[in-house]
Amino acid sequence: MQRTVQAINFKNKIEDNMSVKVSRMKPVIKPTTPHKHAGYHELIFLSRGSGMHSIDDNHFDVKPFIGFYLKPGQVHCWDFSQIPEGFVILFREEVMSAFGNTLNNLFRMAEKFDLPENTSLFGLLEQFYQEYKTGSNPGILGAYLNLTLLKTLELADTPLEIEPSIVAEFYRFKTMVNEHFQNLRQITDYAELMNISTHRLNAICRSAAHTSAINIIRERILKEAKNMLTHTSLNVSEIAYRLNFSDTSNFIKFFKSLTSLTPLQYRSELK
């Protein structure tokens, strides 16, 4: 992939006054440039098409029937070889305020999930799309979105056995990390924001994701570093500065400790 941009662009495909938007997948195969979506989630369901979908540093073959889930801030791009068909749902979290348990379990959704060919989900999506097109009120659209998410979680075989309060707190922590990872690096920072102890925060992370809170923070920083190395032409020093490292050598040490590669070695392996 050619790196010609100096920064990863944000695209806003949903108006500020909207909480949910449903559309059909555009019937085009022109490759898209890597970009982020800020402030909203994205669900894609494809019944036709083939090609490649890149999300952060993961690359997925597009083979119907398939779905993708993008969290706010993730980098992605398409490279289709056959015209796609399906649906795209964009939504802000406020539309799901009445369905907290469903929203809290979204973090367990895989970035890519396979769908059975005979699923009734696409019929539901068509109804959802028609309700959106006819201007149904937010309550109805929120109910359709909740049903779509529940059905998707079921089809994606997503385990929901964790206590709902643990799920909610873990999701809140992940959201905070996504918003503040460039400036807040310590567990104590997030524990204070959440008004809980560091011990409690680590217990939540171990229960929900089988890892520690510091690993969640480090993985988010690493993900952003990989995105910049993959999708921009920024040099290592510039990336270190943008990620708020004290100097380039500390960034290199951090990156190598988690990947066994230097940033330049990682970038060279992408070619």
UniProtKB/TrEMBL annotation:
Gene3D superfamilies: Homeodomain-like, Jelly Rolls. Keywords: DNA-binding, Transcription, Transcription regulation. InterPro entries: Homeodomain-like_sf, HTH_AraC, RmlC-like_jellyroll, RmlC_Cupin_sf. This is AraC family transcriptional regulator. SUPFAM superfamilies: Homeodomain-like (SSF46689), RmlC-like cupins (SSF51182). It comes from the Bacteria. Residues 171-269 form the HTH araC/xylS-type domain.
